[in-house]
Amino acid sequence: MPDNKTPQAGPAGVAGTGPSTAAGLADASNASVASAAEVIAEAGKPESREKARSLGQDAWRELRRNWIFWVSGVLLVLLILMAAWPSLFTDVDPRHADLRNHYLGGPQWSHFFQEDWFGYNVQGQSVYARTVYGARASIIVGVCVTIAVTVLGGIIGMIAGYFGGWVDTVLSRLTDVFFGIPLLLGGLVLLQAFTNRTVWTVTFALTAFGWMQIARVMRGAVITQKQADFVTAARALGAGTNRILFRHILPNVLGPVIVVATIALGGYIATEATLSYLGIGLKDPTVSWGVDISAAQKDVRDGPHALMMPASFLSLTVLAFILLGDAVRDALDPKLR
Amino acid sequence: MGRFVARRLLQMIPVFIGTTLLIFLMVYSLPGDPVKALFGSKAADPATVARLRHEYGLDKPLLQQYWDYITGLFQGDFGQSFTGRPVADLMAEAFPVTIRLALFAFAIEVVFGIGLGVLTGLRRGKFLDQAVLIFTLIVVSIPVFVLGNMAQFLIGVKWKLVTPTVQDSTDLSQLILPAVVLALLSLAYVTRLTRTTVAENLRADYIRTAVAKGLPRRRVVGVHLMRNSLIPVVTFLGTDLGMLMGGAIITEGIFNVPGVGNTLYHAVITSEGPTVVGVVTVLVLVYLVSSLVVDLLYAVLDPRIRYA
After folding, report:
1. Contacts of residue A189 in chain B, CB cutoff 8 Å?
2. Terminus-to-terminus CA distance in chain B, angstroms?
3. What is the count of structural domains for chain A?
4. From the list A189, A307, A323, which residue is nearest B23 (CB)?
């Protein structure tokens, strides 16, 4: 392939800028993504030719064309805004309760963004305000667990995959051991020990029983990559273990890990809500969708809206993350489709 | 084959010991004193506390307790719950209920999941395919406790089609709703998985050969396509059956099914250590055996796979 391109692109490149052209072309053909036509077209613009598109740039290019990415992206930006600055969406205090006037008051669907838009709950609190403020706990837990799980599982998987031998045996059996306990059950038993539960204790519990999948994916990916020629080359040049692992192997195995992590994010949010619903996750002063759904369950016959609204937002958030994960997977790893 | 099974069985031992040890340590070393909790709000008599702690072996070092538990286990003794009932009795009551519910849900999942998956895989991109895909996406993103509560409210309370909660767990008609709720999530996964593999294998050379040599469509799809497409689906179904056997904490809670999930949840809430450890021990065994069976099923479905 390089042989085909060079003669065609050569003249254009020379006409373009000069010495850096050759390097740029070599990179592009190595990556074997750019067609000859593209190379010629890009040769005119010096800055775009400096290096070939990386996996990230390639994925971004793919993502931009996917409408699912935009739908889930817009939804998530809204939800993150809601989590960061809930007062942008409502000026009602979610903890303000007025039982005398508003006990299970029905929703007023035409009163957009007002206190009574989604009605009132059993405590006479505005369901709309509580739904808006509830986003924070879910988003924080979801994002933090995903980051923690990716780091912890990633490191364990990388060590197991790279060093192999008895290290791999021990770490793989450890992964199996944790796999034997389902996420919800592990979270339940662990959180039972804490009387004062915050988003951070919930994050800790979900991380403790959630890292195994990433570890397995990472281990598999590292095992395939460590036999690659560029690793041998790096070692021959005298690169240390850390350098090989983090500078050479890590960038090449990140793709599948990011995919698994994004899809799992929605699952962590659902698990947090489930734990709160069971009364063992977050507790009342914290506004959370799970807590609200749990509280509304007893009066579902009289005020179904108090259950439906937080439940819809919860489902929508999970859906948005799953869609985003799907889109990212399609962009990063077309083989998995 | 025999050697493979033997090696896998040997590998299970450290995992079994590790998982039971992990749950044991979590249950017994975390704060909260179950013996003091037995006294409720009354002041505990120190002599009685000491006697009870000695009776349950709680005064020994943790590892010693674990050793006693494991040796008891191999003699068929699951220990005693803090209410004085043998844990084995509690489980003997709960497991039949859960097994009934799990098999019911599993049947729904297999029939509808594979059926819809094959149907949509064969007609990829058509209206039915799109509709089913959207349906599975919605099902996957609604958490089970939301789905269960909604189904109970709409079907059980508002339209009165079924009893909202299960009064008699031997009556299969009462188990329909919980079984459907329990099955839906896995059903969505099975559908998507089947659809992908069917659509992929449809392009395979052997299918073209089968069509070219004039086999009836039923045989092409039923034998050539299905057998090859089902391998990843069977993997999923195998692990999923293990999960379903573990009881569904949420679904059983909502519909008041007195199964393993409910027993486990109440045991965790009330710090019933022996019950939690006992149930989880059985669950780990179920999980290990189901993953072994899945591995063996590979060889049945795909003759190219041979276990030395």
Report:
1. 23, 26-27, 30, 268, 276
2. 6
3. 2
4. A189
